[in-house]
Amino acid sequence: MKIQEKLRYTKDHEWVRVEGNMAFVGITDFAQGELGDIVYIEIETLGETLDKDEVFGSIEAVKTVSDLFMPLSGEVLEINEGIESNPELANTDPYGDGWLIKISINDVSEADSLLSSEEYKQEINA
Question: What pTM, to 2 d.p., does this model score?
Answer without folding.
Answer: 0.95
